[in-house]
Amino acid sequence: MRRTRAVRGVAVLVVLVLALAGLAGAVGALSAGAATAPDAPAAVVDDPAVEAPEAPAATPAPTPSPSSSPAPSPGPTVAPTPRPTGQPEPEPVPTSPATPEPTPTPSTEPSPSPSPTVVTPPQDDAGSTTRRFFTPPAVTTTTTPWGQLLGALAVVVAGAVAVVAIATRRSRTAAATAAAAPDEDDAPTAPLTAPASPADVLRLLVAAGEAMVDAGHTVSSVADELEEIATAHGLTGTETVVLPTALLVSVPDGSGVATAVVSAGRRPLLLHQVDDLTDVLRDATSGTHPPAAVRARIAFLRAATPPFGALARLGGYLMLSVGLAALLGGTWVDLLVAGGLGLAVGAVQLVVAPTSGNLEVVLTVATAFAVSAVVLLLGRVVPELGVLPSLVAPLVLFLPGGLLTTGVIELATGQMLSGAGRVAAGTMQLALLAGGIVGAAALVGVPAVDLDAQSTALGPVTPWLGVALFGAGTVVFRCGRPRTIGWVVLVLAVAYGAQVLGDALFGGVLSALVGALAMTPVALAVARFPSGPSPLVSFLPAFWLLVPGALGLVGVTSLLEGDSGGLSTLVTTAATMVAIALGVVVGLAAARSLPGRVRLRRTGVPAALAPDLADGSGMV
Asked: Taking the model in full, what pTM does it have?
C-alpha cells in the first residue's frame, strides 16, 4: 500500500512538471512570436539605403554650367554693374541653380556605398562564435529593488526557522506527554459500548462528507476521510462517490448495501466553521464518539453564530481591498478608490449573501459592471488613478483563485470529473466578471490608460503592509477565529516573500510555484498550535494572494476586447495554476522531514499527493 502511494505520488509530480513545462513553452512561443513582429520592419530600414545610389541620376544637371559662361559677357559695364547686375539677371538665376553643384559632390560620396554592406546582419553570424542570450536570465532583468529582495529573503528564512522550531518543540512536547502517561494496564478501563449500526454510520458519513465538500476540501480528501471514519466504527467495504455538488455513500448492511445520496456544495462554510469541522473530524476518526453525537456537533457548527458582526465584516472587506490595492502597486488615490468601492461591494455581499444560482450570476455581472463603470469614469477625471489596482481589489473575493487551483490539483490526482468541473466553473466566473467589465467599457469608454500598467509603489514597506491588511481583512470578512489572524498573516507573508524571490530568480510564472512551496510547510506547522488555524483556512487566502484569478480576469477582459495579448495572459494564468498546484505537492512532500506528526487529510489536499506521508491514523 505504501509503495502504491509512492508510485502515485511520483506519477503526479511527473505529470505536473510536464504540464508546467508545456505551458511555459507555450508562453515562450507566444512571446517569441510577439518579439519577431517588431523585428520585420528593421529589415525594411535597409531598403532606403539602396535608394541612395539614385542620386547619381541627377548628374546631367551639371550641363547648365556652360550656359552660365555667357553671363559674364556684359563685362564692358565693369564697375557700376557687377553688383547691380544681380538685379537685371534674375533669369539666369533659375538656369544656374546652386543645387546641381552640390549634387555631384554627394554623388561622389555615395560611391563608398560599401558602408551599408557592413550592416548588422553579420552580427548574427558573429553570434555563432560568441553566443548571446535570446532570453536573458530573469535575475538580470528583474526590476525588484534590492531592499525588497532582502526583506523577502529575511521573511522566508524566518519562516523556515519558525517551522523547524515549531515542529521540534511540538515533537518534544508529545514525547514528554507520552512518557508521563500511565501504562495502559494501569489506566482505568471504560465500559465497552455497543457498535454503531450501519444506518447510524451511514448518516454520519453523509453529514461529514457534505460538510467537507461545503468547506472546500478536494474530493479525494473527502473520500479518504469518510473511509477512515467508517473503518473506525467497524465498517469495511464502504464505497463513496464525491463530486463538487453531490455525494453518494454506500455501506454494507447485513447481506445487502445501504446507500444515501445528498446534494453538496450549496452551503459554503465560513472559516470558523472550517476550523471547528477539523476538530469534529478528528474525533470522528478516533471511533470513541457515538455517530449521533458527532452528527449533532456538525449540525451545531453549521448553526453557530459568526465571531464577527456585519459592521466588522464590512470593515474587513475594506481592509482586504486596500491591502490588495497596495500589493498591486497602487497610489494613495488607488487605495482610496479601492477602499470606497470595497465598502460598497462588501455591503452588497452581506445583504445578498444567501442567493440562488441565478441571482448569484446576476450579482456577479452587475457588481463587475458597476465597479468598472465607476473606475473608468474616475480615470477620465483623475489622471493619477491606476485602473488595475482600483478595479481588481474590490472584486477580489469574486475571483475564483481557490476554485481554479483546487481544480488543477484534482486533475493532477486523476479526479477528472470534479477537477474539470471546478476549472470550468472558475473559467465561467472569470467570463462573467469580464463580461461586466467589457460592458462598462463599451458604455463609458476606456480612458488612455494601460490596463496592465501598475502605478508607482508608495514605498518598499507598502507591499508588506498590504499583506497584513489583506490577511486580517480576509479572516474578518470570512469570519475566522480572531486568534488565527496572526497565523494567517504569517503564512501569507512567507508566501509573498517567496513569490518575490521566485519572480527575481525564475520569472513571473514560476514565482507562484516558489510561493506555494514555501507556504505549505508553514501552514502545516502552524496548524499544530492549539490557536493555529487548520491548513485549509491558511490555504484559501494564500491562493487569492498568489493571484491566478486576477491574471485570468485581465486575460479574459483583453481577449473579449479583441486584444491578442489576452491569449498569452490566459496561458500564463494556466501555467500559474499548475505552478501553485506543483508547489503545494512539493511542499506536502517536504513536510515528511519535519519532526512530529501533522494532520494530512484534513488539510483539504488528498493524501495521494504526499507519498509515504500517511499512516493508519491519517497523520504524517
From this structure: 0.71
